[in-house]
Amino acid sequence: MAEPVPVVIGKRPAPVHTVAVYAFAGMAPFELGVVVEVFALARPELAGLLAAPWYDVRVCAERPGHPLEAVGGFTLTPRHGLEELAAADTAVVVGVPDPYGQVPPAVVAALRTAHARGARVVSICSGAFALAAAGLLDGLPATTHWRWAEELRRRHPEVRVDPDVLYVDNGQVLTSAGSAAGIDLCLHLVRQDHGAKVANTVARRFVAPPHRDGGQAQFVEAAVRPVDEPEDGVTRSMRWALDHLARPLTVPLLARAAAMSDRSYLRHFTARNGVSPMRWVAIQRIAASLPLLESPEGSVEEIAAAVGFESAATFRHHFGRTMRTSPSAYRRTFGRAA
């Protein structure tokens, strides 16, 4: 008589969380590499820290087994098809072949299937166009690389595009800004799944901060730009303001430079620029402060005065509103050593 099979009573092992990422011909490899690095790398440093298994990563393409040419002159050959993207626990789109073109219908269908199953759907950089095409961003805040933000807003007005943040977490659907912002979002996912200690350990091996201050506004090239518009009173006042940023500026002063009444000037300026005169002045002062913050010379207080803010507190307020970070944090990120 056969011996009875012993039965071990206890918890079943936790299922492995699958992460599927979409690859395509002509893609830049950085964002794909970020996903693979964070979720697929063997992590002996996490021994004893994980309450659930690490991830199972699958790189997917429309035609599995066919080499894809990547930027940089090399090829990669995904082994998995889009059915794995549809079946994953987390489906990631790190970009689309052409932000100005149509998203492949098979990718849209896979994302819709994944979302309907309750999977987490994630985009990095121009991947937001795929999520928008699938209707997964309708009525939601979302972000993408700052250079694609206006195109995303134009093509998908139902999406509340925020070009300033590093990533947006809507629960089941998450989007990040371009390139390195994908690191921030992937670490955020690890933090959600495994806790802050594990995410910090992954970030340390990645040689990246576990959390960055601010948004992508701080990485957009900014400068006090010359006013190149038809010559009229508003244009004259803007040119005059750029030449006198360090002095106190008020609407009456700007209106006088435009040879207009205060009320008429406010109306014409806002219609022309989409912001009030004093908000425009603050933005120009912030732009003028950036090269000063990138230099090791001068304190935040001295820079605030040099570009025309009445106090360092006012400077910090407007800087945070415009750049989504503080002057000191910006200097730590972009400052040059003495």
From TrEMBL:
Name assigned to this protein: AraC family transcriptional regulator
UniProt-listed Pfam families: DJ-1_PfpI, HTH_18
Any one GO molecular function term: sequence-specific DNA binding
Domain HTH araC/xylS-type intervals: 235-333
InterPro entries: Class_I_gatase-like, DJ-1/PfpI, Homeodomain-like_sf, HTH_AraC, HTH_AraC-typ_CS, INH-QAR
Species whose genome carries this gene: Kitasatospora cheerisanensis KCTC 2395
CDD domains hit by this protein: GATase1_AraC_1
Gene3D superfamilies per UniProt: 3.40.50.880, Homeodomain-like (1.10.10.60)
Listed PROSITE patterns: HTH_ARAC_FAMILY_1, HTH_ARAC_FAMILY_2
Keywords for the protein's UniProt record, in alphabetical order: DNA-binding, Transcription, Transcription regulation
